[in-house]
Please model this.
Amino acid sequence: MAYDFDLYVIGAGSGGVRAARFAAGFGAKVAVAESRYLGGTCVNVGCVPKKLLVYGAHFAEDFEQASGFGWSLGAANFDWATLIANKDREINRLNGIYRNLLVNSGVTLHEGHARLVDPHQVEINGERFTARHILIATGGWPQIPQIPGHEHAIGSNEAFFLKTLPKRVLVVGGGYIAVEFAGIFHGLGAQTSLLYRGDLFLRGFDGAVRKHLQEELTKRGLDLQFNADIERIDKQADGSLKATLKDGRVLATDCVFYATGRRPMLDNLGLENTGVKLDKRGFVEVDDLYQTAESSILAIGDVIGRVQLTPVALAEGMAVARRLFKPEQYRPVDYAMIPTAVFSLPNIGTVGLSEEDAKGKGYKVKVFESRFRPMKLTLTGCQEKTLMKLVVDADTDRVLGCHMVGPDAGEIVQGLAIALKAGATKQHFDETIGVHPTAAEEFVTMRTPVAD
Model:
Protein backbone atom coordinates (compact mmCIF):
# COMPACT_ATOMS: atom_id res chain seq x y z
CA MET A 1 0.00 0.00 0.00
CA ALA A 2 1.20 3.51 -0.82
CA TYR A 3 1.09 5.88 2.17
CA ASP A 4 1.03 9.68 2.20
CA PHE A 5 3.88 9.68 4.72
CA ASP A 6 6.45 7.24 6.03
CA LEU A 7 6.14 8.81 9.50
CA TYR A 8 3.40 10.98 10.94
CA VAL A 9 4.30 12.58 14.29
CA ILE A 10 1.59 13.90 16.58
CA GLY A 11 3.16 16.55 18.80
CA ALA A 12 5.90 19.06 17.99
CA GLY A 13 7.63 19.01 21.35
CA SER A 14 11.27 18.15 21.90
CA GLY A 15 10.92 14.42 21.22
CA GLY A 16 8.54 14.72 18.29
CA VAL A 17 10.60 17.37 16.51
CA ARG A 18 13.83 15.40 17.01
CA ALA A 19 12.26 12.21 15.61
CA ALA A 20 10.77 14.09 12.65
CA ARG A 21 13.95 15.95 11.73
CA PHE A 22 16.18 12.91 11.91
CA ALA A 23 13.71 10.71 10.04
CA ALA A 24 13.49 13.30 7.27
CA GLY A 25 17.27 13.53 7.22
CA PHE A 26 17.38 9.77 6.67
CA GLY A 27 15.19 10.17 3.59
CA ALA A 28 11.75 9.48 5.03
CA LYS A 29 8.67 11.47 4.07
CA VAL A 30 7.55 13.01 7.36
CA ALA A 31 4.73 15.19 8.72
CA VAL A 32 4.25 16.70 12.16
CA ALA A 33 0.97 17.86 13.67
CA GLU A 34 0.85 20.42 16.49
CA SER A 35 -2.27 21.98 17.99
CA ARG A 36 -0.67 24.42 20.44
CA TYR A 37 2.88 25.67 20.24
CA LEU A 38 6.06 24.50 18.57
CA GLY A 39 8.64 23.24 21.02
CA GLY A 40 6.17 21.65 23.42
CA THR A 41 6.14 22.02 27.20
CA CYS A 42 9.88 22.59 27.63
CA VAL A 43 10.14 25.61 25.35
CA ASN A 44 6.78 27.21 26.12
CA VAL A 45 5.64 26.37 29.65
CA GLY A 46 8.48 24.36 31.11
CA CYS A 47 12.26 24.27 31.36
CA VAL A 48 13.11 27.36 29.30
CA PRO A 49 10.73 30.01 30.67
CA LYS A 50 11.08 28.53 34.17
CA LYS A 51 14.83 28.98 34.13
CA LEU A 52 14.44 32.55 32.86
CA LEU A 53 12.22 33.22 35.87
CA VAL A 54 14.76 31.55 38.18
CA TYR A 55 17.45 33.87 36.83
CA GLY A 56 15.13 36.81 37.53
CA ALA A 57 14.52 35.67 41.10
CA HIS A 58 18.23 35.22 41.78
CA PHE A 59 19.00 38.91 41.20
CA ALA A 60 17.51 39.74 44.60
CA GLU A 61 20.43 37.87 46.21
CA ASP A 62 22.99 39.44 43.89
CA PHE A 63 21.84 42.94 44.83
CA GLU A 64 21.93 42.05 48.52
CA GLN A 65 25.44 40.61 48.33
CA ALA A 66 26.92 43.36 46.13
CA SER A 67 27.64 45.69 49.06
CA GLY A 68 30.22 43.23 50.40
CA PHE A 69 32.20 43.82 47.22
CA GLY A 70 32.03 47.60 47.48
CA TRP A 71 28.97 48.29 45.38
CA SER A 72 26.48 50.86 46.65
CA LEU A 73 23.07 50.35 45.09
CA GLY A 74 19.87 52.29 45.36
CA ALA A 75 16.60 50.62 46.22
CA ALA A 76 15.91 47.82 43.73
CA ASN A 77 12.49 47.65 42.11
CA PHE A 78 11.13 44.62 40.31
CA ASP A 79 8.55 44.75 37.50
CA TRP A 80 6.83 41.45 36.78
CA ALA A 81 5.27 42.68 33.53
CA THR A 82 8.69 43.46 32.07
CA LEU A 83 10.04 40.02 32.93
CA ILE A 84 7.01 38.26 31.42
CA ALA A 85 7.08 40.40 28.27
CA ASN A 86 10.77 39.71 27.73
CA LYS A 87 10.21 36.02 28.43
CA ASP A 88 7.39 35.94 25.86
CA ARG A 89 9.62 37.57 23.25
CA GLU A 90 12.31 34.94 23.77
CA ILE A 91 9.80 32.07 23.57
CA ASN A 92 8.38 33.49 20.33
CA ARG A 93 11.91 33.54 18.94
CA LEU A 94 12.40 29.89 19.90
CA ASN A 95 9.04 28.96 18.33
CA GLY A 96 10.33 30.42 15.07
CA ILE A 97 13.55 28.43 15.36
CA TYR A 98 11.59 25.19 15.82
CA ARG A 99 9.48 26.05 12.77
CA ASN A 100 12.59 26.63 10.69
CA LEU A 101 14.21 23.42 11.94
CA LEU A 102 11.22 21.43 10.75
CA VAL A 103 10.67 23.17 7.44
CA ASN A 104 14.36 23.24 6.54
CA SER A 105 14.54 19.52 7.27
CA GLY A 106 11.86 18.87 4.68
CA VAL A 107 9.16 18.02 7.24
CA THR A 108 5.54 18.90 6.45
CA LEU A 109 3.99 20.88 9.31
CA HIS A 110 0.26 20.55 9.98
CA GLU A 111 -1.05 23.03 12.56
CA GLY A 112 -4.19 21.71 14.22
CA HIS A 113 -5.47 18.87 16.38
CA ALA A 114 -4.64 15.47 14.89
CA ARG A 115 -6.80 12.47 15.72
CA LEU A 116 -6.23 8.80 14.98
CA VAL A 117 -8.83 7.34 12.61
CA ASP A 118 -7.26 3.89 12.45
CA PRO A 119 -3.76 2.38 12.89
CA HIS A 120 -2.47 4.03 9.72
CA GLN A 121 -4.60 7.15 9.34
CA VAL A 122 -4.97 10.52 11.05
CA GLU A 123 -7.48 13.30 10.61
CA ILE A 124 -6.59 16.96 11.03
CA ASN A 125 -8.46 20.11 10.01
CA GLY A 126 -10.98 17.99 8.11
CA GLU A 127 -8.35 16.20 6.05
CA ARG A 128 -7.13 12.64 6.33
CA PHE A 129 -3.59 11.39 5.82
CA THR A 130 -2.16 7.89 5.83
CA ALA A 131 1.20 6.89 7.26
CA ARG A 132 3.25 3.71 7.50
CA HIS A 133 4.25 4.68 11.05
CA ILE A 134 2.54 7.06 13.49
CA LEU A 135 4.43 8.47 16.47
CA ILE A 136 2.56 9.79 19.50
CA ALA A 137 4.61 12.52 21.21
CA THR A 138 1.88 14.60 22.81
CA GLY A 139 3.56 15.07 26.19
CA GLY A 140 1.92 15.75 29.54
CA TRP A 141 -0.39 18.27 31.16
CA PRO A 142 -0.55 19.68 34.71
CA GLN A 143 -3.13 18.03 36.95
CA ILE A 144 -4.98 19.90 39.70
CA PRO A 145 -6.88 17.79 42.26
CA GLN A 146 -10.65 18.11 41.97
CA ILE A 147 -11.17 19.55 45.45
CA PRO A 148 -13.94 22.09 46.14
CA GLY A 149 -12.79 25.39 44.69
CA HIS A 150 -10.14 23.85 42.42
CA GLU A 151 -11.21 26.26 39.68
CA HIS A 152 -9.61 29.08 41.67
CA ALA A 153 -6.17 27.43 41.60
CA ILE A 154 -3.59 27.58 38.81
CA GLY A 155 -0.96 25.17 37.48
CA SER A 156 2.42 25.75 35.90
CA ASN A 157 0.88 26.59 32.49
CA GLU A 158 -0.98 29.59 33.89
CA ALA A 159 1.86 30.74 36.14
CA PHE A 160 3.93 31.84 33.15
CA PHE A 161 1.20 34.22 32.02
CA LEU A 162 0.04 35.87 35.24
CA LYS A 163 -0.66 39.55 34.61
CA THR A 164 0.72 40.58 37.98
CA LEU A 165 2.91 38.98 40.64
CA PRO A 166 0.66 37.84 43.52
CA LYS A 167 1.52 39.33 46.90
CA ARG A 168 0.84 36.01 48.67
CA VAL A 169 1.24 32.55 47.11
CA LEU A 170 0.59 29.03 48.33
CA VAL A 171 2.58 26.48 46.32
CA VAL A 172 1.21 22.96 46.74
CA GLY A 173 3.41 19.95 45.96
CA GLY A 174 6.70 18.30 46.81
CA GLY A 175 8.31 17.68 43.44
CA TYR A 176 10.87 19.72 41.56
CA ILE A 177 8.28 21.99 39.90
CA ALA A 178 6.81 22.96 43.28
CA VAL A 179 10.24 23.60 44.79
CA GLU A 180 11.38 25.65 41.80
CA PHE A 181 8.29 27.86 41.67
CA ALA A 182 8.32 28.40 45.42
CA GLY A 183 11.85 29.75 44.96
CA ILE A 184 10.78 31.90 42.02
CA PHE A 185 7.82 33.53 43.79
CA HIS A 186 9.78 33.98 47.02
CA GLY A 187 12.81 35.42 45.25
CA LEU A 188 10.69 37.92 43.33
CA GLY A 189 9.17 39.24 46.53
CA ALA A 190 5.92 37.33 47.06
CA GLN A 191 5.07 36.03 50.53
CA THR A 192 5.36 32.34 49.73
CA SER A 193 4.45 29.13 51.52
CA LEU A 194 5.22 25.65 50.19
CA LEU A 195 2.72 23.02 51.33
CA TYR A 196 3.50 19.32 50.93
CA ARG A 197 1.43 16.41 52.23
CA GLY A 198 4.54 14.32 53.04
CA ASP A 199 7.26 14.60 55.66
CA LEU A 200 9.87 16.11 53.31
CA PHE A 201 9.84 17.22 49.67
CA LEU A 202 11.74 15.79 46.66
CA ARG A 203 10.98 12.13 47.34
CA GLY A 204 13.45 9.93 45.43
CA PHE A 205 16.37 12.34 45.75
CA ASP A 206 19.26 11.63 48.09
CA GLY A 207 18.29 12.15 51.73
CA ALA A 208 21.18 14.51 52.45
CA VAL A 209 20.20 16.64 49.45
CA ARG A 210 16.59 16.89 50.59
CA LYS A 211 17.52 17.82 54.15
CA HIS A 212 20.18 20.31 53.09
CA LEU A 213 17.79 22.11 50.73
CA GLN A 214 15.18 22.27 53.47
CA GLU A 215 17.69 23.97 55.76
CA GLU A 216 18.83 26.46 53.11
CA LEU A 217 15.29 27.41 52.04
CA THR A 218 14.33 27.93 55.67
CA LYS A 219 17.37 30.21 56.13
CA ARG A 220 16.10 32.29 53.21
CA GLY A 221 12.74 32.79 54.88
CA LEU A 222 10.67 30.51 52.67
CA ASP A 223 7.76 29.09 54.70
CA LEU A 224 7.86 25.28 54.43
CA GLN A 225 4.81 23.40 55.70
CA PHE A 226 5.09 19.62 55.56
CA ASN A 227 2.29 17.13 56.32
CA ALA A 228 -0.08 19.82 55.07
CA ASP A 229 -2.73 19.58 52.37
CA ILE A 230 -5.62 21.74 51.18
CA GLU A 231 -9.19 20.52 51.61
CA ARG A 232 -11.01 23.37 49.86
CA ILE A 233 -10.45 26.81 48.32
CA ASP A 234 -12.93 29.67 48.65
CA LYS A 235 -12.83 32.96 46.78
CA GLN A 236 -13.46 36.03 48.92
CA ALA A 237 -15.37 39.21 48.03
CA ASP A 238 -12.13 41.17 47.58
CA GLY A 239 -10.77 38.60 45.10
CA SER A 240 -8.39 36.96 47.56
CA LEU A 241 -8.53 33.26 48.36
CA LYS A 242 -9.08 31.30 51.56
CA ALA A 243 -7.49 27.86 51.69
CA THR A 244 -8.84 25.49 54.31
CA LEU A 245 -6.36 22.75 55.20
CA LYS A 246 -7.22 19.19 56.18
CA ASP A 247 -5.94 19.89 59.70
CA GLY A 248 -8.49 22.69 60.06
CA ARG A 249 -6.15 25.65 59.62
CA VAL A 250 -7.18 28.45 57.28
CA LEU A 251 -4.62 30.33 55.16
CA ALA A 252 -5.32 33.58 53.34
CA THR A 253 -3.61 34.02 49.98
CA ASP A 254 -3.88 35.65 46.58
CA CYS A 255 -2.82 32.62 44.53
CA VAL A 256 -2.88 28.85 44.97
CA PHE A 257 -0.39 27.18 42.65
CA TYR A 258 -0.61 23.39 42.25
CA ALA A 259 2.37 21.29 41.18
CA THR A 260 1.12 17.88 42.20
CA GLY A 261 1.72 15.85 39.09
CA ARG A 262 1.16 15.69 35.35
CA ARG A 263 -1.02 13.42 33.26
CA PRO A 264 -0.42 12.17 29.71
CA MET A 265 -2.07 14.44 27.13
CA LEU A 266 -4.32 11.99 25.29
CA ASP A 267 -7.48 14.12 25.01
CA ASN A 268 -9.50 13.37 21.86
CA LEU A 269 -6.57 11.51 20.33
CA GLY A 270 -8.71 8.67 18.94
CA LEU A 271 -6.86 5.86 20.70
CA GLU A 272 -10.14 3.95 20.84
CA ASN A 273 -9.86 3.50 17.07
CA THR A 274 -6.65 1.54 17.52
CA GLY A 275 -5.26 -1.30 19.60
CA VAL A 276 -3.04 1.04 21.66
CA LYS A 277 -3.14 0.19 25.38
CA LEU A 278 -2.53 2.31 28.47
CA ASP A 279 -0.70 1.16 31.58
CA LYS A 280 -2.23 1.27 35.05
CA ARG A 281 -1.09 4.88 35.51
CA GLY A 282 -2.77 5.99 32.28
CA PHE A 283 0.37 6.39 30.17
CA VAL A 284 0.77 4.85 26.72
CA GLU A 285 2.19 1.35 27.06
CA VAL A 286 5.24 0.67 24.88
CA ASP A 287 7.94 -1.97 24.59
CA ASP A 288 11.70 -1.41 24.53
CA LEU A 289 11.43 -0.18 20.92
CA TYR A 290 8.72 2.38 21.85
CA GLN A 291 6.17 0.32 19.94
CA THR A 292 2.61 0.18 21.27
CA ALA A 293 0.28 -2.80 21.14
CA GLU A 294 -0.61 -1.49 17.66
CA SER A 295 2.46 -2.34 15.56
CA SER A 296 2.24 0.75 13.34
CA ILE A 297 1.97 3.20 16.27
CA LEU A 298 4.86 4.25 18.49
CA ALA A 299 5.10 6.64 21.45
CA ILE A 300 7.89 8.54 23.22
CA GLY A 301 8.48 11.23 25.81
CA ASP A 302 6.30 12.27 28.72
CA VAL A 303 3.29 10.46 27.27
CA ILE A 304 4.89 7.07 28.08
CA GLY A 305 5.76 8.12 31.65
CA ARG A 306 9.26 6.67 31.89
CA VAL A 307 11.81 9.40 32.60
CA GLN A 308 10.02 12.69 32.05
CA LEU A 309 12.96 14.89 31.07
CA THR A 310 13.50 16.80 27.83
CA PRO A 311 16.91 15.27 26.98
CA VAL A 312 15.41 11.81 27.46
CA ALA A 313 12.60 12.58 25.00
CA LEU A 314 15.24 13.81 22.53
CA ALA A 315 17.18 10.57 22.90
CA GLU A 316 14.02 8.50 22.46
CA GLY A 317 13.04 10.45 19.35
CA MET A 318 16.45 9.90 17.82
CA ALA A 319 16.33 6.19 18.66
CA VAL A 320 12.96 5.80 16.91
CA ALA A 321 14.13 7.64 13.79
CA ARG A 322 17.29 5.57 13.55
CA ARG A 323 15.59 2.23 14.13
CA LEU A 324 12.93 2.88 11.50
CA PHE A 325 14.96 4.62 8.81
CA LYS A 326 18.68 4.13 9.54
CA PRO A 327 18.88 0.82 11.42
CA GLU A 328 22.65 0.49 11.02
CA GLN A 329 22.98 3.56 13.30
CA TYR A 330 20.42 2.41 15.87
CA ARG A 331 21.39 2.10 19.51
CA PRO A 332 18.94 1.84 22.43
CA VAL A 333 18.53 4.62 24.96
CA ASP A 334 20.50 3.93 28.14
CA TYR A 335 18.43 5.05 31.12
CA ALA A 336 21.25 4.55 33.61
CA MET A 337 23.22 7.51 34.95
CA ILE A 338 20.83 10.20 33.66
CA PRO A 339 21.92 13.53 35.19
CA THR A 340 19.30 16.04 36.22
CA ALA A 341 19.02 19.41 37.92
CA VAL A 342 16.43 21.12 40.07
CA PHE A 343 16.59 24.88 39.60
CA SER A 344 15.65 25.65 43.14
CA LEU A 345 17.50 28.47 44.88
CA PRO A 346 20.09 27.07 45.60
CA ASN A 347 20.25 24.61 42.69
CA ILE A 348 20.43 20.83 42.90
CA GLY A 349 22.50 18.72 40.51
CA THR A 350 22.49 14.93 40.69
CA VAL A 351 23.52 11.86 38.72
CA GLY A 352 23.50 8.18 39.61
CA LEU A 353 22.25 6.48 42.75
CA SER A 354 21.29 8.13 45.99
CA GLU A 355 22.78 6.69 49.16
CA GLU A 356 19.42 5.13 50.00
CA ASP A 357 18.99 3.54 46.54
CA ALA A 358 22.54 2.21 46.52
CA LYS A 359 22.02 0.50 49.87
CA GLY A 360 18.64 -0.75 48.71
CA LYS A 361 20.29 -2.40 45.72
CA GLY A 362 22.65 -4.25 48.03
CA TYR A 363 25.80 -2.18 47.60
CA LYS A 364 28.17 -1.75 50.49
CA VAL A 365 28.80 1.98 50.23
CA LYS A 366 31.28 4.58 51.34
CA VAL A 367 29.91 8.11 51.49
CA PHE A 368 31.95 11.29 51.08
CA GLU A 369 30.37 14.63 51.96
CA SER A 370 31.51 18.22 52.08
CA ARG A 371 29.56 21.25 53.28
CA PHE A 372 31.13 24.67 52.93
CA ARG A 373 30.37 28.33 52.48
CA PRO A 374 31.12 29.29 48.85
CA MET A 375 34.00 31.71 48.32
CA LYS A 376 31.70 34.29 46.73
CA LEU A 377 29.81 34.63 50.02
CA THR A 378 32.83 35.17 52.28
CA LEU A 379 32.64 38.95 51.83
CA THR A 380 28.90 39.02 52.48
CA GLY A 381 26.60 38.31 55.39
CA CYS A 382 25.00 35.36 53.60
CA GLN A 383 25.47 32.10 55.47
CA GLU A 384 24.34 29.75 52.69
CA LYS A 385 26.28 26.50 52.45
CA THR A 386 26.95 24.21 49.52
CA LEU A 387 26.64 20.43 49.80
CA MET A 388 28.66 17.98 47.72
CA LYS A 389 28.32 14.23 48.08
CA LEU A 390 29.74 11.09 46.48
CA VAL A 391 28.29 7.61 46.94
CA VAL A 392 30.97 4.98 46.30
CA ASP A 393 30.84 1.19 45.98
CA ALA A 394 33.14 0.05 48.81
CA ASP A 395 33.98 -3.20 47.01
CA THR A 396 34.92 -1.84 43.55
CA ASP A 397 35.66 1.84 44.35
CA ARG A 398 33.29 2.83 41.52
CA VAL A 399 31.41 6.10 42.08
CA LEU A 400 27.71 5.22 42.06
CA GLY A 401 26.23 8.65 42.66
CA CYS A 402 27.16 12.30 42.68
CA HIS A 403 24.99 14.96 44.32
CA MET A 404 25.27 18.69 44.84
CA VAL A 405 23.23 21.54 46.31
CA GLY A 406 24.66 24.96 45.54
CA PRO A 407 25.26 27.57 42.83
CA ASP A 408 25.57 26.17 39.29
CA ALA A 409 25.04 22.60 40.51
CA GLY A 410 23.59 21.53 37.17
CA GLU A 411 26.56 22.94 35.24
CA ILE A 412 29.04 21.11 37.47
CA VAL A 413 27.24 17.76 37.60
CA GLN A 414 26.86 17.61 33.80
CA GLY A 415 30.62 17.13 33.47
CA LEU A 416 30.76 14.62 36.30
CA ALA A 417 27.97 12.63 34.63
CA ILE A 418 30.39 11.76 31.82
CA ALA A 419 32.86 10.39 34.37
CA LEU A 420 30.20 8.27 36.08
CA LYS A 421 28.92 7.04 32.72
CA ALA A 422 32.46 5.95 31.90
CA GLY A 423 32.71 4.01 35.17
CA ALA A 424 34.99 6.36 37.10
CA THR A 425 36.28 5.22 40.48
CA LYS A 426 36.90 7.27 43.58
CA GLN A 427 40.62 6.86 42.82
CA HIS A 428 40.05 8.58 39.46
CA PHE A 429 38.45 11.48 41.31
CA ASP A 430 41.30 11.57 43.85
CA GLU A 431 43.94 11.60 41.12
CA THR A 432 42.28 14.42 39.20
CA ILE A 433 43.80 17.83 39.84
CA GLY A 434 41.22 20.44 40.76
CA VAL A 435 40.59 23.83 39.18
CA HIS A 436 41.43 26.35 41.91
CA PRO A 437 39.75 28.29 43.38
CA THR A 438 36.38 26.79 42.45
CA ALA A 439 33.60 25.01 44.24
CA ALA A 440 33.84 22.16 41.72
CA GLU A 441 37.33 21.18 42.90
CA GLU A 442 35.77 19.94 46.14
CA PHE A 443 34.58 16.86 44.24
CA VAL A 444 38.19 15.80 43.72
CA THR A 445 39.50 16.68 47.18
CA MET A 446 37.16 14.74 49.47
CA ARG A 447 39.32 12.11 51.14
CA THR A 448 37.64 10.95 54.35
CA PRO A 449 34.41 8.95 54.20
CA VAL A 450 31.53 9.90 56.45
CA ALA A 451 31.15 7.59 59.43
CA ASP A 452 28.29 5.15 58.87
